[in-house]
TrEMBL record:
It comes from Maritimibacter dapengensis. This is Uncharacterized protein. It comes from the Bacteria.
Amino acid sequence: MSEEDKQLDGATQNVVTEDGLRDLLSDGYLIEVICNQTAEKRHNSWYGAWIVHAVTKDGQDAKMLVTSRSVFKLREFKTIVGLVSFLAEMGRLSANIPLIPGRRERHEAFGSPATATN
């Protein structure tokens, strides 16, 4: 294996796609939402920049959410509506969203779409 292949293989261990995230959530990982840009309200919606990591409960293992393992494009959410929709699709029934860069919030999720219960 070439040095370049080793580096690529190492990088893929630190990223996860949406499908992979669902698998990790069922194994007990948490979703960590990280604010990268101060959120601001424009009209009736909030805009900013948020990324998502899958993390173990002890925080020792973190994987960045990417759009594709072959492209390594970090999945970034630009609106709170988009982020909350994503969290709901991952099985969250509520959301805490950091609004200041560097702030992080962890969410337990179940890897499947949220369903309402009576």
